[in-house]
Amino acid sequence: MVRSDLRQGLNKGHPTTPIAKTVRPSQRKGIQSARTKFVRSVVREVVGFSPYERRVMELLRNSKDKKARKLTKKRLGTLLRSKRKLEELSTIIQESRRTTH
């Protein structure tokens, strides 16, 4: 809101120009950089999947979604993390189906 030279009201006060705030590193928390994304993809390619992830992928292939959800929740701690992991693994399964066929 632009201030006017009025003494009272919503726009009261001396007219000033607003200064843009700089973005702090703490405000960037959770945003994935291109470098981090690349490094994680290379590590995934080299190392592969953990045993529980392989088991979950097998359960998803056999349409045992509920059991897969329970297993990932037990391993990861929360339902939200479990859902994200299941989504990630199901997209990996779909990508592998596309490349093989």
UniProtKB/TrEMBL annotation:
Species in which this protein is naturally found: Antrodiella citrinella
One GO cellular component term noted in the UniProt record for this chain: ribonucleoprotein complex
Annotated coiled-coil segments of the chain: none
GO molecular function, one term: structural constituent of ribosome
Residue segments, region Disordered: 1-32
Protein name: 60S ribosomal protein L36
PROSITE patterns referenced in this protein's UniProt entry, alphabetically: RIBOSOMAL_L36E
Keyword Zinc-finger: no
